[in-house]
Design goal:
3 copies of one chain form a homotrimer.
Chain A lengths: L1 E5 L2 E7 L4 H11 L5 E18 L4 E7 L3 E13 L2 E11 L5 E21 L5 E2 L13
Parallel strand pairs in A: 5-8
Antiparallel strand pairs in A: 1-2, 2-7, 3-4, 3-5, 3-7, 5-6, 6-7
């Protein structure tokens, strides 16, 4: 993972084998990013997508096999329990060009992943709710 | 719907049962947002997608049944007839993780929807064209 | 193609028949945009999508027939060989509302395409690697 800072905006390049959510989270910890939004494109494999089951208060996960284009990576950074929390949704497409998507649990970068992350001037925080299984933004 | 303002950027949390387009539009009316762009992620149901039929000058709409992840919500705000107009496209994915998408007519927030909306320093306006059925940006 | 500048941000309207990548590239050349990120929505046809074959170091391309909503256009601008290079990924959806996606080789605007392009205050550059077939950002 490498990055440059342009004004307050970070351009981040994730490299082969790096995990998207884990690496972004570590980046935010290191740079003390407490709130941000981001977008990204790239390629990945071992993508694990989540679909939230409202009535069960938990995600159903599925690992998507094979290499995938990251056609859209979108999300935000906030603090959960005082630590940066990356909330990302992703759309991926394979060699059949069909798009799959969901909450991004994790994915491993294949060739590259190029993310533009814009920090916000005010902290965002979340709190986990045991009753719903959700971690809504505290507003 | 709740929001915070970070610099000139709004972070908006839509809550269960709120309609995405309607609530965003009302937010822009209230805050006098006349031009902006936004991105968002979340979950929804009762999504109604549109596909523009060029030769007929109108949308074909379809309601997508069931709960859906909002894997990408993207769009802009401009003035149409002097009032804020939200133009949004959406990609959603269900429990099979297949992605569907289109022009967003409306969707109802399920668990949460987190939108980052960045106002622009110049107004955008649109004008409806009866001949094409379109409402292009006036440039 | 028409645009307005709001602060440092460009709002670009591509019109019927214009090629997305080609027109954006020419725009960046003309305006001397050397690094930026963008998002866009619209409609297109003659979309040609790419899927990167890692082991072959090249893209597999497919032309998607028919009119399509551009449900998400996302990417960045950098310099490659001293010239603006547009790296875009796209998600499109047809009259069946199923989403397809990939690296965007090219697409022709159908009704309109509305792009928000935010220049960055530092140049981004890429270098082509003959061994991998990739053009990673130089960091």
């Amino acid at each position: 993972m490498k990055h440059i800072k342009a004004g307050s905006t970070y351009v981040i390049r994730l490299d082969r084998g790096e995990k998207v959510v884990e690496t972004l989270t570590r980046f935010c910890e290191k740079r003390k990013v407490r709130s941000a939004f981001f977008q990204g494109i790239g390629t990945c494999r071992r993508a694990e997508l989540g679909f939230f089951l409202m009535d069960k208060g938990r995600y159903k996960f599925r690992k998507v096999p094979g290499d995938q284009e990251i056609t859209s990576l979108m999300g935000n950074v906030s603090l959960l329990g005082g630590k940066p929390f990356v909330h990302a949704h992703i759309v991926i497409s394979g060699p059949d060009f069909l798009a799959r998507g969901g909450h991004l649990k994790e994915a491993e970068v294949l060739a590259t992943c190029e993310i533009v992350l814009t920090p916000l001037s005010r902290s965002l925080t979340r709190t986990y709710s045991r009753s719903t299984g959700l971690k809504p933004l505290d507003f």
